[in-house]
Amino acid sequence: MSLDFLSQKYESLDYDQCENYYFLLEQRQQQRNLNILRNKGFKRWIVILFIGILTALTACGIVIATDKLASYKFHFLMTKMNQCDNSSFCYTPLFYWMGINATLVAIGSIMVTYWAPVAAGSGIPVVKCYLNGVKVPEVVRFKTFVSKAVGVIFSVVGGLATGKEGPMIHCGAVIAAGVSQGKSTTFKKDTHLLDEFKDDREKRDFVSAGAAAGVAAAFGAPIGGVLFSLEEGASFWNQALTWRIFFCSMITTFTLNIVLSIYHNHAGQLSYPGLINFGKFGEINYAIYEIPIYAFLGAIGGILGALHNSINLRLSMIRLKYINRNWSKVAESVFISIFTCSIAYSLIYLDEDCHKKELLSLNETIRAGCKESEFSVMSYLWLATPEATISRLFHSDDDMWTWKTLLIFFVCYFFLATWTYGISVSSGLFIPSLIVGATGGRLFYLLVKHTLPDESDWADGCKFALIGAAAMLGGVVRMTISLTVIMIETTGNITFGPPIMITLIVSKWVGDYFNHESIYDIHIRLAAIPFLYWEPPSLSTTVYASEIMSAPVVALRSVEKVDRIIQVLENETHNGFPVVDTEEFDFTESGSSLEPSYSSPAHYGRFRGLILRWQLIVLLQEKIFNENDEYHKITAGTFRDAYPRYPPIEKIINLITDQERQYSIDLRPVMNPSPYSMSHTASLNRIFQLFRALGLRHLVIVNDYNEVVGIVTRKDIARYRQHCHRGKLFLQTLQISV
Ligand code: ATP
Prior knowledge:
Layout: E1 5-7, E2 11-12, H1 21-32, H2 34-82, H3 92-115, H4 124-132, E3 134-135, H5 142-157, H6 165-181, E4 183-184, E5 189-190, H7 200-219, H8 222-233, H9 239-263, H10 291-322, H11 326-350, E6 354-356, E7 374-376, H12 377-382, H13 386-395, H14 403-420, H15 430-451, H16 461-477, H17 481-491, H18 497-514, H19 519-526, H20 545-548, E8 556-557, E9 559-561, H21 562-571, E10 576-580, E11 607-612, H22 613-621, H23 636-642, H24 649-653, H25 658-661, E12 664-666, E13 677-679, H26 684-694, E14 698-702, E15 708-713, H27 714-718, E16 720-725, E17 728-733, E18 735-737
Parallel strand pairs: 1-18, 8-10, 13-14
Antiparallel strand pairs: 2-3, 4-5, 6-7, 9-12, 10-11, 14-15, 16-17
Adenosine-5'-triphosphate (ATP) binds next to β2, β10, β15 and α27.
């Protein structure tokens, strides 16, 4: 199966401001009335406040529901297991466990698969794409939000090797997109309170705040949230936006803290800043000679992360090929949930590692073959929510762990995490990666203790578990700055920041050496999304605009016949059309045939502006024809009201009479009169920078006389990808498929 294509089904978002006549008119009116401008600024803060609060409340709902359900489940299973005859393998609890998990996962998977497929996975790849400028269908819809939030509760309680942190980031993004528009397409309600925010650009800024709030809610890491939005999304960034995003993250952390402190009966004691709680680490010290050890652990994490990503890529390709029916997706999820608990249950009974109960409460532990005063260490790892497992790995006494238990758990969990990510359920991979890494860190501690029994005072299981977790996560997701800050904020330990940073940097370098993509980038590539990475491909300076542009161009004249506009919209799928002067050039009048009436040089008239498909649709829908002279009827608001979904042209043509088809439309007041354009001699490198930095959707290519010679879109740029083969660098051009 080839991954060398981009899907045509993804449209682009338009982050370029269309400064047309109506927009400027509105701006001038606002200048005269300062209150409007002040109100807009004030509303922005209010919207941000609500995004922060609602994201926190969603996170609380998820954490409380998971907590309650998981606690019922585990107590029920523990009772059943502790009732078993201690001397033999007991099947009844296994069947209960399989039944409960399969039911929960089936519900979560059915929701996602049949109702909102875009809610599958962690959601971080699609949020990244949205911020990058790709319109992923239904990514910020209400049903996606419900499937994501409710689905993740079922996946986590259903015992899959997943976490709820990634989905939280997607939930924050959906909340932001919904709240900022003041309307709901699902409920067909528009409050018209926030009309000024109805465009891709404003919405994107709110979505980045929502994603940051999601990180803050997930990890109790408000600064990490801001940096996450910056690292993953931003081609756009300014001081005011940073400040608002930070405010949003802080509000989320604060609200979550208050609600969870009430839930945990410690009202006012604000020690629950996020969904995940790594527990108190206290003062972890390190000496300078330990730095190479952290770098070494980082390298191991990088290798394991690369292995994880590589296996997951292959599994995902198999999935795309063979598991593409809805029922089979649900069946796979249910199978994995049954498999996971069967493995866990078998290991609990087969592994004879027992530990004294001592400080642990009796109803938290399972004997499973151990003596009355002991509990099974394996059950301590498996029979808990993933968040509880990670906390146990970080904080339990060093003498609780034996290398055999840890090694078995490490191998099993690594493969389960690798297999589970990508199935059709709402699931995150931060926690599974942290669990695998922390187990690896504990193993490394045992190794150090074993090989250097007298000279290992500096070694500390908790410290190595933390570094191992960071290394593994870094190798899988390849984030550096935001992940470092998230880890520091989550552990509440600034002293240990440099070791975490070094570990993450090394794990990214080593991981990148083996395969250049994070797990999120892999899934973006699998979905064939036209994503623009940070840097242009290395060899792009050698490619010219004239080589990548599309020509012939479908262009429209400044004053165009209604009939031709309809034909162009019917026959072409493009979303943007250059507007050109008409005097010099005569387009073939029939249909949407676009050949210029002369042969050479191939240009399509002097460039005047750019008009988008939806703008033409609104003009036709409102019947703004020269002959009606009703241009005064429309305002900038007319275009915003229709945002973000416009009827297809097929629905509009029935409204237009034969006589009206002979009318004409003046496109000049509506088109963007100053869109970005580039000379045909510009390099792909320069064009890439322009698209990436400004979030462009279309770029018109002109010749030396400002005449249109071609057009380049995001997809044209995304098609160029750097490729390495036998030590040689290639610029690979991907196909665009339907
Ligand atoms: P998007 O789908 O990203 O919102 P779009 O539909 O306008 O934008 P693409 O789908 O990216 O454009 O375009 C597909 C191909 O058609 C690209 O190769 C692009 O260069 C070409 N193309 C786009 N607009 C025009 C046009 N007006 N005339 C001729 N070719 C075009």
